[in-house]
Write a structure and sequence with these properties.
Strand content: 25-35%
Number of strands: 6
Number of helices: 2
Strand order of the largest sheet: 5-4-3-6
Largest sheet: 4 strands, antiparallel
CATH topology: Translation, Eukaryotic Peptide Chain Release Factor Subunit 1, Chain A
Mean pLDDT: 81
Number of domains: 1
Low-confidence stretches: 1-15
Distance between the termini: 25 Å
CATH superfamily: eRF1 domain 1
Length: about 110
């Protein structure tokens, strides 16, 4: 827990802060297929599971599973595309954010940081 002060410096309150350890960003363009993206995430999961002992932390497996569970809710890509952000903090809490953008996306992105 961190202690933060307001601008006047008189009141003190507690803020819970956790460090985000891993993030998965996935952008699906308009003309793409949900089946293709799900297949890509399945292959990534299998690859990460095989490389688990050397390079991959268990957080990456959790992120890929969470992203696949989000994609299962969609039958097709929305007209403007779809953006999925999944993060995990040091306490193991998973944060999920699904955004249908206001503009049409033309390119895809898959990134795990």
């Amino acid at each position: 827990m961190n202690i933060a002060q307001s601008g006047s410096g008189k009141s003190t309150f507690l803020i819970d802060t956790f460090k985000i350890t891993k993030t998965l960003a996935l952008m699906i363009p308009t003309g793409d297929s949900i089946k293709r993206v799900n297949k890509m995430l399945e292959i990534e999961y299998q690859l990460a599971y095989r490389c688990f002992t050397f390079h991959t932390s268990p957080d990456v497996l959790l992120l890929l599973t969470a992203a696949r569970n989000i994609i299962k809710n969609y039958k097709s890509v929305p007209t403007n595309g779809l953006r999925i952000n999944v993060s995990i903090d040091e306490m193991g809490t998973i944060f999920q954010k699904v955004v249908v953008p206001n503009y049409i996306m033309n390119q895809s992105l898959y990134l795990v940081i």
